[in-house]
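Quick one, T. Sequence first:
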Amino acid sequence: MAEATLNGIITDDGGLPCEYRFVYGPAAGPGGSTPWSGGWLVTGDTFSAKITGLLGNTNYYFRAEARNSKGSAVGSILNFITTKPSTSLMAVQVLPAINITENAARIRGVVVNSMGQTGQVRFHYGTTTKYGIVTSWQQGFATGDEFHADIQGLSPETGYHFIAEFKANPSIFSADASFWTLAEMGGMVLLDEQMLQLLEESL
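Structure tokens:
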């Protein structure tokens, strides 16, 4: 497993203190994010966040974001390459969550090194690092195999933590990762052409 510390600076606070976060992922359109933090940063202040559970020897992209009641700002996309993972220890890692909605997400993992064994995998997840919810076991995974679980019943605009477990001999766990669910869209109503015509006739 690999980890990195991301750094940023507030270049212009717009006249009000800001909070910050980082978005990151192994593609140019980052998919993972750290929780919004701070709330007191002003022009010239630096900030950072440590991210874990990254794939080894992989190019990651990231950018910083800041916001306050006046608006939000997005930094330039930068990149870094993680170090090559050790091949002497059994290891499992999580990948950035995808397909994130208000109430659901797909959490993912990969068996980095099974030491020649075939085992079973599952995830632990929840709103804190105590997790509390466990997915079903999936059978037959070894080095290089990716796996996922589609989880539902999540709360909108909420941070969730998750780890992967690989059970062979012994059972091992990945580092923690996290994601935020989307905010609810509200009472948006879409009208088709016939409904619009009836509304126009009633006016």
